[in-house]
Records
---
Amino acid sequence: MAVNPPLVTLLGATGFVGSAVLRELARRPLRIRAVSRRPAPVPPDARAEIEVHTADLTAPGAVAEAVAGADVVIHTVLYSAGATTWRVEKGDTAAERVNVGLLRDLVETLRERRAAEGGTPVRVLWAGAASQAGPQDKEVLDGTETDRPRGEYDRQKLAAERLLLAADAEGVLRGAAIRLPTVFGYAPESTARDKGVVTLMTRRALAGEPITMWHDGTVRRDLLYIEDVARAFAAAVDHADALAGRRWLLGTGRGEPLGAVFTTIAALVAEHTGKSAVPVVSVPPPAHAEPGDFHSFAVDSSAFRTATGWRPQTPLDEALRRTVAFCAEGREESLL
């Protein structure tokens, strides 16, 4: 008798990270429920059986319906109110409802399911942020540091992570938090807009505008290409039990000076346009800048690599080249 493949429910399937995870998992013989506010595009080469489920997950009962029967839940939903994907004002209840409330709803749903049905706990993989640690005295984060978040977004993400790991300790679910560094870029098959700083500066350069920095360019960030993030979540699905109960950091292990990154972007854009490279200039930081904006860090992801066998595969220059090409060809304009 044939056995159904596992059902993976992907929350946030049209988001920047979620859409890339969907493309990666669609190559596998799985059942996938792609959950989002608007219909998720099904990859044309999908091997997986994909159910497109549209829902406002903040509505009563929506999370329970979305994860019904799931063996694995991947939670990539991110509150986004405008041009940036992560800044949140203190007291923003809409952001808290998404960033924390949806995880709380998921925990309560799975607690009720566990009490009613027993059986194997659902595996939950949740997308967090390396910035949850807050500014640290060291420049290489490895997951052993004490979290000291300064911004509201990071405080909300940390609150959600603690809910997840507490539920794992209680036996409600088997949960792992995967903290992401600065994720960026486009692949040829991308279907969701990148609102991060790397692609923002690519747009500026293509418009002939200077690339601006709030510092002297020596601030370093660990930049991880979106396709490598998707492969990491696929690896996490394969090793969900080994990862459960902990937070895990993703990154390349290198802190890239943003001034040099932006200069590379300017040069790549000049290749596409045939015009002179736009200047990269320092400007005064805006009032909403946070301490973390001026703090350099890289991420030591050796623990996750050892547990899963994952490695980032795309060199930075190649990832930047793909991103510039995608934007220069006008393909970004149709993305939401």
---
Amino acid sequence: MKKLTAIAATAAMSLLPLATAQAADFNLRFAHFWPATSGLHAAFESWGTSLEEASDGRIAVEFYPSQTLTKAPQSYDAVKNRIADVTATVQGYSANRFPLTQVVELPGMAKTAAQGSCVIQSLYDEGLISGEYDDTHVLYVFTHGPGDIHTREKAIHKPEDLAGLKIRRPTTVVAELLEGLGAQPVGMPAPETYPSLQRGVIDGVSMPWEGIKAFRLNEETNYHTEIGLYTLSFVVTLNKGVYDEMPDDLKKIVDEHSGQVWSQKMAAAFDDQDRQGREEAVAAGHTIITLEGGAGNPDWKPVLDAATEKYLSGLEERGLPARDVYARATELSKSCGS
């Protein structure tokens, strides 16, 4: 009898986590592609913890890092179709879907994640890019810090040094920049870069220092060119139906965990990870080339200006107010950077 009682007690204890999760009114499945060991995953967890505490446990958040629920390129549609409830993903992984948002990826827009995130969240709040997200409920948008060039075997000082090199690019906007510089851009999500470098599929990556740390790329790249080539944009978004089902008091709590405040919290995590990623490369004795003037360096600027013009003109041909958004983003870059 005692043995049966002990077994019953053990079984009851094993069900406690499930019972606790079911006690929530809303259990949100949050999918993203960063490793569970990364600083960005920790930042998302802090958002989830804050949301759970503010709702007295009526909202619970369950995390699926490392593409375990959905692959990075399909993450946005996974939330739209309720395969996941929340995601953090790159808008540019869905080519041509967020063209005005991706204006922030153009060279020289931001020197830090804090600055870039202020720009993109302001563009969203002002209604200049929000129409691109009508199929989900956006919580906040943000950017990483400057995207640089990191290579395995060759130091990059001038555009001609990139000639023929296969460089990973995150989006089509960055692909155009790299093509203009003479590289051969190869599209792939960040989690695929480590094995691709290891096997020699690519010669290098365009990525911020945060990504170099998160995906352990300091193990495979020895040369780093700091140029501020681009600033990648991200979105944390919620399934519309889930939000609509929430009572007003829970919607209010979700709203309080949205917007510029949380955009800046994510930016702070990115900027901190950028610092750590660079420190790792320094400690490993890697070669770091810091271009004077960044994207405005005279050897690089003409090519990057041409790529910027090509992108804006292409959007205008589609009837999109690209120059208006770009002009406002440039204004915000100055005020956000002050």
---
Amino acid sequence: MTIAERSHPAPVPQPLTLRQHGALLVKSFEDRAGMGAAAAADIAAALRARIANRGAVRMVFAAAPSQAEALATLVAAPGIDWSRVTAFHMDDYIGLAADHPSGFANWLDAYLFSRVRFAAVHRLDPGDDPEGAAARYADKMAEAPIDFVVLGIGENGHIAFNDPPVADFDDPLDVKPVALDDVCRTQQVNDGCFPDFDSVPREALTLTVPRLMRADRLFCLVPGANKREAVRGTLYGAVETACPASILRTHSACTLYLDRDSDPDAR
């Protein structure tokens, strides 16, 4: 960033519409770039304020192409003391080679973890003992409250890897192994993460719905026409595991960021 850019930062895009669905605040933007820039501005402001007030932040990130624009803007945002931020991520594949670029820890290394200096980065590594890894990760997350979660919504309405067949709004676990449904696995191909369906792992570790919902504040970024029906279910369907993201309507501090393509109400 040049001196001129720091002196005259680009204006934050304004939403086309701002509305409420239950407790969920929805901001809808003209395009994906505007959505990502506006979400990053909100996340950056929240980080600065929380660090100033409490001295540190514990934060969970999603790894997905839908997050790329926002993360690129966020790491370039001024005034964030990343050395006071402890990072987690919300899911990763079981059985994928440790150096596979589509592994979520590796994706976040490329887009985020290697680009700023965190206080700590806790990677979710299933290894050869997924259940043990899940328990250890849950213990690490439970050491102190989670401040913020940055997440998306899947084509089947999942949040993290809580697909409809395995999502549990009353899950007693914080992190668990799950089987991925066919819609979820197909999305990974659609997103360009794998060359074909059979290359997508069948299982993953994921933070559960209650673990996500206990965070103080959630920022949910959902661009693209392929997410429109999932967003419709999130906003207008019953709050039920058939569309796991519908639970976001009950969180006291969650903002959903959409673009024109993903917004079922866009004209």
